[in-house]
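Backbone-to-sequence.
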């Protein structure tokens, strides 16, 4: 058993409802706009949009599917040849419902359902760009400044090191300067030691001379 549709049932039974919606769809495709009750318009909208989707396909199988709902071949021909090309670029929303007020007598809400045949206006790309601004591209630094060497350090880090190496005095020159400064001090120490040794030797010679004089006496 097929699943019943939502909402109130139109007509006396399911077959009557299908015929009623088919006739409403045929009238809509013929006149492009009809006035009916709000309940019938809301039930007609999905049926009519489904038939328009078949018409946009344009093949023989789609034409037979539409003929199963609408028995008038003239209306089907108009749907496939006139209405389908006008909504070819539209991806949905082929109908529009406008409320008209209430009907006199039973106070039923009346609406006007019409086909939307206006050309589709594409959204300008400038608005999309203003809504989602692209991030500014990061400029790549020159390869000479940021490219790492084989040791893993960049050339920016090596330049100051080379400058320091150029400005620093050589190790050999420092040792030579220290040697020239230390050389006079070592010479003075040697001379002092020699003077002391000569004094000690003179004192020993004097002492031996005195001992010899005493022995001779």
């Amino acid at each position: 058993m097929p699943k019943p549709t939502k909402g109130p049932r139109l007509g006396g039974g399911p077959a009557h409802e299908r015929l009623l919606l088919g006739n409403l769809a045929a009238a809509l495709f013929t006149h492009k706009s009809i006035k009916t009750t709000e309940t019938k318009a809301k039930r007609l909208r999905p049926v009519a949009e489904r038939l328009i989707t078949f018409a946009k396909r344009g093949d023989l199988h789609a034409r037979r599917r539409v003929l199963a709902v609408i028995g008038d071949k003239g209306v089907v021909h108009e749907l496939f040849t006139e209405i389908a090309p006008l909504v070819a670029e539209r991806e949905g929303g082929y109908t529009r419902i406008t409320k008209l007020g209430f009907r006199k007598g039973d106070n039923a809400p009346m609406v006007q359902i019409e086909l939307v045949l206006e050309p589709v206006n594409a959204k300008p790309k400038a608005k999309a760009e203003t809504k989602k601004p692209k991030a500014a591209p990061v400029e790549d630094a020159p390869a000479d400044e940021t490219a790492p060497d084989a040791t893993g350090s960049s050339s920016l880090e090596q330049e100051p090191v080379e400058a320091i190496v150029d400005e620093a005095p050589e190790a050999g020159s420092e040792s030579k300067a220290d040697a020239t400064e230390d050389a006079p001090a070592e010479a003075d120490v040697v001379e002092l030691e020699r003077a002391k040794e000569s004094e000690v030797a003179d004192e020993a010679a004097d002492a031996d001379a005195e001992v010899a004089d005493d022995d001779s006496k």
